[in-house]
Task: inverse folding
């Protein structure tokens, strides 16, 4: 079977996506019948004059969505409709941010999880990868240091010191594959049966990890300066708090730019947090500095860790937002006094990041590419931020707008209290997806925040932002 | 400063290692003084006409061993001796297998952890990597499926089915970065406060993970067929067993080739294990099939998982041994009845392997490279195995030799009972490192096994094996 797929080399839609969309449509429209055999990825690639990985990516996506099946040693076949219905239940997770129109009828998706990959320095990344593999570097294929390669940790230390004011040595840094993994490792170091206070709303993935590790999580509501430390002592944070085991051992905070509220914690509140941590042995603050790189107004706010003189702050950072989610590299900075515990309780966990990837990242950092990339992204995101702020002008009578000047999303709180559900539903009817604040709230049934929706803008073009805002205004006014 | 480093392009010692060794020697001999500045990696690379990543790897190793220090924005400097002593305490983990002579005086290191990287298809790996990055494959830089890319899981499924007789669908496979991570994920799925029986001696890393997750571990001694299921019911496995919480919920076994004992579990014992698992709700067998690829005699033994008709076997495998440790890719195969639990309790853990690496591995598997590589490695390891068996001839009067025909190590048990410590010490005096069985024993203070040492041969040349055996005979006879 030969597939005639019209490819547009000038399109912004990547080749593999054009192939994927075409075959999907052919199957949906019944032009490709169930059980019919597709050409191999190699044949199709030769036929279309594209590389094989392009056709493989397209097939991979079709496989994961259940449109086609792979039969070992035989090839790829169009799925029967039954099979299709069954497998569509599986969340494929692919294209989450790339394909805003994936859900029927959605034209503009203000996803707060997206990042802009159009400005990613693919050439540089490719060149570094190639050079690393060109050498007869056998050692790269062996197991490395459980904490991550020393040179990479040193490069991270140097960056954190100059950009974030973090004070540490490379010995205190642990490199790992993603936040969930690192938080799991951290909870091994901190020990079982602990109580942790978290800002509410918060980064739900962190909440899920702590829950999965058997921690009791105390959600603490915020005022305009962020988490109110006084609430903890007076046990007012949530009425549930008084009934529970008691006071927290740790507080998980995002002082540089709270997710999702966008609050930058003022210095006084930070000092209160540090004082709280020093009051009792064994108390720690876990500072998640997930997107501090993006700030468009005023001076960058140094990390809480840099203010700490008593080894009470555990710092966690990631390259998922500043480089790309698939890089799968984040890092923990432990206070010196926790290093012995780390080595004893979790030091046997081999590093989850391959030495090859560590080496690529190391060169990306030390050769200045990271800094250049961040500068570029700051201006890309600032332009999108400014565009969105401008386009939201007509909505100011009905909404309070918050979270500007930093990060890659904004919050819109309705002044009259039209519910989140109604705002989301009306937006959806107009082909726009926005996200309710309540999805970030721990125990959303107790959500005390006024009706708020979140608009992420990182992976939208300015044209899409404009179109999205036009539709939102029509839907909400 | 210019460094004159004599490089030997014909040597089997890689370039970066020659550079590393030369500088280390210069520092040790005092030719390079503390605080003196080294050339930048770029300058040195240009000077020596090697690629920059070669000099970077050399410096990285020197950094991690504390011979040099990096001062941000200034460069690399020779460390003072004080600093050197301090940082040498850190286990760098580098070159564990590559550099047998690292410890003073050791000429031949029969490490059971080593693998042979001389036969690794670097060119193929490089070519695949290059092709994947050549395309404008933005999607690869986004987050993927938490279980791993569907196409890769399908490729693993197909391999497991044909090579190991494992029956599963791609939906039951979870790809993750390394065994420790996957076992941690598994213990989240299985729930807290469980009792797990493990073969004793065993793979200590797995033991450490289960302990770290709060599991009670019951070490069970083995007979010549492996773990004796009867021992569990009669609570005879170890006197500690009777005092403890009771019977196990799970059994962790390596039926294809027990590590480190090298026992291949006979069919009858396997059936007993499966019957044990079916006796009670919630019982599972965890089958670690870590090096089943290497078998030199007789038919390959299919996995226990393939015999299971009741969804009681959890299968775990890895590419660390069959490809390379640094690949950091392993996988779990869960029974269907555990998938809902997985999704509920651990499905939010994002994949720890980057999509780029998953794609490289996918192509390595599906384009036939893996099969060819395994065939090549089987013959490489068989030749080393046969060489070692031949060279051990003179030791047969004093030792029983076990664990042959499979895997990449042998066991030597002393017939007269000269202690492990003495055997190891005498070998060391002769410049040979061998490994005591007791390091794999849970609660080594209760070690009931006769004096046994382990000889791994994967990363030794035949000449080194011969030299090592010559020395061992002189030391032990």
Result:
């Amino acid at each position: 079977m030969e597939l005639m797929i019209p490819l547009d080399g000038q399109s912004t839609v990547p080749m593999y996506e054009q192939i994927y969309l075409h075959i999907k449509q052919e199957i949906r429209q019944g032009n490709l019948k169930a059980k019919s055999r597709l050409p191999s990825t190699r044949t199709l690639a030769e036929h279309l004059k594209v590389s094989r990985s392009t056709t493989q990516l397209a097939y991979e996506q079709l496989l994961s969505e259940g449109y086609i099946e792979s039969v070992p040693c035989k090839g790829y076949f169009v799925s029967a409709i039954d099979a299709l219905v069954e497998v569509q239940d599986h969340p494929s997770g692919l294209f989450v941010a790339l394909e805003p129109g994936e859900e029927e009828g959605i034209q503009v998706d203000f996803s707060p999880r997206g990042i802009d990959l159009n400005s990613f320095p693919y050439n540089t990344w490719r060149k570094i990868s190639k050079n690393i593999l060109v050498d007869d570097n056998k050692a790269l294929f062996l197991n490395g240091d459980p904490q991550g390669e020393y040179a990479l940790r040193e490069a991270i230390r140097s960056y954190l010191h100059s950009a974030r004011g973090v004070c540490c040595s490379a010995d205190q840094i642990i490199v790992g594959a993603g936040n969930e993994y690192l938080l799991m490792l951290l909870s091994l170091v901190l020990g079982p049966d602990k109580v942790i206070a978290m800002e509410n709303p918060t980064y739900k993935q962190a909440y899920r990890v702590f829950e999965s590790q058997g921690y009791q999580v105390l959600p603490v509501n915020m005022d305009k300066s962020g988490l109110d430390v006084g609430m903890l002592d007076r046990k007012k944070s949530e009425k549930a708090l008084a009934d529970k085991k008691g006071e927290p051992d740790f507080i998980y905070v995002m002082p540089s730019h709270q997710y999702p509220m966008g609050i930058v914690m003022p210095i006084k509140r930070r000092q209160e947090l540090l004082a709280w941590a020093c009051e009792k042995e064994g108390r720690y603050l876990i500072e998640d500095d997930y997107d501090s790189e993006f700030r468009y107004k005023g001076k960058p706010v140094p990390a809480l860790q840099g203010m700490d003189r008593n080894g009470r702050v555990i710092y966690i950072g990631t390259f998922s937002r500043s480089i790309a989610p698939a890089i799968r590299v984040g890092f923990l900075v432990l206070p010196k006094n926790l290093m012995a515990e780390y080595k004893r309780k979790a030091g046997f966990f081999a590093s989850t990041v391959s030495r090859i990837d560590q080496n690529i990242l190391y060169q990306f950092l030390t050769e200045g590419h990271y800094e250049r990339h961040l500068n570029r992204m700051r201006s890309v995101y600032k332009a999108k931020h400014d565009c969105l702020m401008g386009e939201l002008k007509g909505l100011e009578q009905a909404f309070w707008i918050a979270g500007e000047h930093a990060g890659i999303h904004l919050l819109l709180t309705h002044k009259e209290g039209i519910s989140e559900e109604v705002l989301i539903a009306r937006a959806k009817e107009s082909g726009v997806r926005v996200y309710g604040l309540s999805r970030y709230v721990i125990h959303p049934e107790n959500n005390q925040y006024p009706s708020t929706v979140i608009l992420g803008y990182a992976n939208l073009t300015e044209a899409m932002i404009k179109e999205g805002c036009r539709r939102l205004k029509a839907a909400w006014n």
Remarks:
- Chain B has 16 helices and 16 strands.
- Confidence is low (pLDDT under 50) at residues 82-101 of chain B.
